[in-house]
Design brief:
heterotrimer; A mainly alpha (329); B alpha/beta (234); C mainly alpha (299); A: 329 residues; mainly alpha; 2 domains; 0% strand; B: 234 residues; alpha/beta; Rossmann fold; 6-stranded mixed sheet; 4-stranded antiparallel sheet
Chain lengths: 329, 234, 299
């Protein structure tokens, strides 16, 4: 038994090395534009992988994922913002327990902090909301997202309100992105293929039955929700330090919609599905961008996303990588 | 009138009913007996069209009805009075009765039938505006039966009508069932409580874990030793 | 200054908004009661209704009464199309599937409007007979306010009669309670559901008209938040309850307007957040809403 268990870990190690080589090559061989697209694919993949944990494996249909990205983005931005620019951009200096006014956080810890804060938010909002069934959970989580973005708009002293924050240092590069993608895929995989994972599956299939087996659903739901939120927060931080500017309205329902669409099209509840979904839809977006901007028909890309989603839901709901008779079909 | 051939019905992969054969002739009262979980309700639901057979055929008045939807079967004259009454608790007594005749378009006749039901069950008339969920068990059973009759069925399927009723009410119920037959309605009756059913019916099928174990004319089956021990003893 | 006049004025605004929510909630609660489906596409119908009305009423100058019927018809037709093309196919499937697909349709319609009509908001030049101002000692209001309140009351009354007295209305209530037993009554489930859908969609389109006429501006994304807020109204009033939807709608409208009117000015940005805070509160404290039937909201 031991030998078989060792194998998957080995695959990850090998896969990780291949990834490292691939990323290195991409960084040195491809032009900046393509590298940018790859980074974006990576960031979105992290969000879909994290959403997959909550929605796909645990069956909690949360529509508020963008909120966690927002929390992560703002947190990491505020922590890592260069001191010299803080006053100019009307951003607060860090209080002493966060390092004091002479300090700005390095990238990695800032990202982790963003993720952790998102997790904490998830636990706080999860306790009441995760008890709810299906549609109520979805709308409540949507509501949570609205509340978060409302705060982002109103707490001007901290977030600069609707104007958002610019001149964010561009720390994100392809190595960081794919490192975090690797971590998130590994962590999710580990959770799913463990006792926790099996319990989550049981909850997803039939919560009452699971309770009868002595599984306390809340514990597992909260765990999966919090881990999902963590990586979404990290992705948010990566995103902020990639696009160099963030505003509250970017973390809207439509961000969640895009992520959900990517996840469904790729295949909810599978390992590679989220990545396939994210990558293909980002690729599609960049392929269509010239058309949308050239012909000035704004909304084309979203429209196509929506069409794909509808088509998949009606004809292959398990997604590209999914199997028939999965939860969706 | 009703003929079931080699019926197999599955829940997922587990067969609830296996290779059952059943026949109900016009004007008969046929009883389908067996312990809990034997598959009796499954058969009734399949006849009604709520469940689909994995294998086998259902013939009604000579025609195969396998692919007819429940509303279509209702229009053909089959009515089910479900287990546990199946009344609409949030609707009034009259609304429930009215729904029984939903598929009918002959308004005047429906009115007449409604009055007939009220004459048969004066208690229902007293409570006609009352919300059905507030009725007593016996009254709910009356309502369920009345509603079933409102559809002017040719074949009525009764699923454990005596469930939860006091013995006195059960006797009343069964004399009522005997009267329905006089009106020309064919009855297929499912019961756990075999005693009363055996007294009123013509033919019996005994079901055990999805398979027809015994069948025959009521008096004969009733007097069999093995039947008495298993179903009537204690 | 928080005078009585101010209070009355804001209350009126709240009631008007509440009526709009109530009509939306009405359409949603009937469909939700039967199908357990939150139809996100409901919001899209608001947008469609608003733009449709804009083109026929403002651009083409079609008279008011005709407009009303045309909008209702248009909305109903759109609802029917949605039902036939997608929702029927997904009936009996997992709940999540319907939710996701309705999201897809919402996004599709919204971006279609964005692409085909305009990414910029349109000024809805309400005809003058609807914007005539009435000034009384305490209140200032326009004809459109009266129209909205009047139309809402009329529609709610009709709906109430429909659901209580007609054959189809009773059938809807039966299906909402127990679909299986309803089918053995001979009720054609699909047809009844389609009717519920068409009615709800017609109402949604009509509220789009009212919204545009009242607030003077329509845009491709006007439907989303409103649609979701309508769901909040449904929850507050009690899912599946027709009077509950109406009550919930009005309460939500009042809560939204009055809370932002009486809190310090910068709180007005919290408007949307307040609505959802109410939702979460209700779901935690009294999930069956004000008039609702005990339903499995929690697991």
């Amino acid at each position: 038994m031991r030998k078989i268990n060792k194998f998957p870990e080995l695959w990850f190690l090998v896969g990780g090395l291949i990834l490292l080589v691939g990323v290195f090559l991409a960084d040195h061989l491809l032009n900046r534009y393509l590298v940018h697209i790859l980074i974006l694919m990576g960031i979105y993949s992290i969000t879909t992988v994290s959403l997959n944990l909550t929605n796909g494996y645990t069956g909690l249909f949360s529509l508020g994922h963008a909120a966690f990205m927002a929390i992560g983005a703002y947190t990491s931005t505020l922590l890592a913002f260069p001191i010299a620019l803080r006053e100019a951009y009307e951003l607060p200096l860090l209080p002493s327990f966060l390092g004091g006014p002479e300090y700005s956080w390095p990238f990695f810890p800032a990202l982790v902090a963003g993720g952790l804060l998102a997790s904490i938010a998830a636990l706080l909002i999860g306790a009441p909301v995760l008890r709810l069934r299906g549609h109520y959970l979805s709308v409540a989580s949507l509501g949570f997202m609205v509340i978060v973005t409302t705060f982002a708009k109103t707490l001007r002293g901290i977030t600069r309100g609707s104007m958002g924050i610019n001149a964010i240092p561009s720390y994100t590069n392809i190595y960081w992105t794919y490192l975090w993608l690797f971590i998130s895929v590994y962590v999710v995989w580990r959770i799913v293929n463990s006792r926790f994972g099996r319990a989550m599956l049981a909850i997803r299939e039939d919560e009452t039955a699971a309770q009868a087996l002595g599984i306390y659903p809340m514990k597992y739901k909260l765990l999966s929700f919090a881990v999902g939120a963590f990586f979404a927060g990290v992705a948010g931080g990566l995103y902020a330090h990639f696009t160099k500017a963030i505003r509250p309205f970017e973390f809207s329902f439509f961000l969640t919609f895009q992520i959900v669409t990517m996840l469904i099209i790729g295949g909810m509840g599978t390992t590679s599905g989220p990545i396939v979904g994210a990558a293909s839809l980002i690729a599609l977006r960049y392929a269509l961008k010239p058309v949308e901007e050239g012909l000035q028909i704004y909304g084309l890309i979203e429209l196509i996303y929506a069409t794909l989603l509808i088509v998949i839901m009606l004809w292959k709901p398990e997604g590209i990588m999914g199997k028939r008779h999965s939860r969706m079909s | 009138m009703l003929k079931i051939e080699n019926l197999t019905v599955k829940y997922g992969v587990i067969p609830a009913v296996h290779n059952a054969n059943l026949e109900v002739r016009e004007g008969q009262i046929v009883a389908l007996l067996g312990a809990n979980g034997a598959g009796k309700t499954t058969i009734l639901k399949t006849i009604m069209g709520i469940l689909k057979p994995a294998e086998g055929n259902i013939y009604y008045q000579g025609e195969s009805i396998n692919f007819f939807s429940p509303p279509q079967r209702v229009k053909m004259g089959i009515t089910l009075v479900p287990e546990g009454r199946g009344i609409f608790n949030r609707l009034s007594v009259e609304e429930n009765l009215f729904l029984g005749a939903y598929h009918r378009s002959d308004k005047e006749e429906v009115e007449k039938d409604l009055n007939r039901i009220y004459t048969l069950f004066p208690r229902l008339q007293e409570r006609k505006e009352q919300i059905a969920g507030t009725l007593s068990g016996g009254e709910q059973q009356m309502l369920a039966l009345g509603r079933g009759l409102m559809s002017r069925p040719l074949l009525i399927l009764l699923d454990e009508p005596s469930l939860g009723l006091a013995p006195l009410l059960v006797r009343e119920l069964y004399s009522f069932i005997a009267n329905i037959r006089k009106e020309g309605v064919t009855i297929l009756l499912v019961e756990q409580n075999a005693t009363m059913a055996l007294k009123v019916c013509d033919y019996v099928y005994l079901l055990e874990t999805g398979v027809v174990k015994v069948q025959g004319i009521a008096e004969e089956v009733w007097s069999r030793e093995d039947v008495k021990k298993v179903y009537l003893g204690g | 200054m928080f005078s009585l006049g101010y209070l009355l004025q804001q209350t009126m605004n709240g009631v008007v908004l509440g009526c709009i929510y109530a009509l939306l909630a009405l359409g949603m609660t009937v469909v939700y009661g039967i199908l357990r489906l939150i139809n996100f596409a409901h919001g899209a119908l608001i947008t469609l209704g608003a733009f449709f009305t804009y083109f026929i009423l403002v651009r083409l100058g079609i008279p008011l009464v005709a407009t009303i019927f045309l909008v209702l018809g248009f909305g109903g037709l759109m609802g029917l199309v949605l039902d036939i093309v997608a929702y029927r196919k997904l009936r009996g499937g997992p709940e999540v599937a319907l939710l996701i697909t309705s999201l897809g349709f919402y996004t599709f319609i919204e971006n279609f409007m964005k692409m085909v009509v305009s990414p910029q908001p349109y000024a809805f030049k309400t005809p003058s007979y609807l914007t005539t101002i009435f000034r009384t000692s305490f209140l200032t209001f326009r004809t459109i306010d009266l129209f909205i309140i009047g139309a809402s009351i009329a529609i709610m009354w009709c709906f109430h009669l429909f659901i209580k007295k007609t054959k189809m209305g009773i059938a809807m209530r039966a299906i909402a309670e127990n679909l299986e037993v309803a089918s053995i009554m001979g009720i054609e489930i699909n047809r009844v559901i389609s009717v519920a859908f068409v009615l709800g969609s017609a109402l949604a389109a009509f509220t789009g008209f009212m919204w545009g006429a009242k607030y003077g501006q329509i845009s491709y994304d006007m439907g989303f938040l409103t649609g979701v807020k309508a769901f909040v109204a449904v929850v507050v009033g009690g899912v599946g309850s027709v009077p509950g939807a109406m009550v919930g709608g009005v309460i939500l409208g009042l809560a939204e307007i009055l809370s932002t009117a009486f809190l310090p000015t910068y709180f007005s940005e919290y408007r949307d957040g307040i609505v959802f805070a109410i939702l979460i509160l209700v779901l935690l404290v009294r999930p069956s809403g004000i008039m609702g039937v005990k339903e499995e909201v929690r697991v």
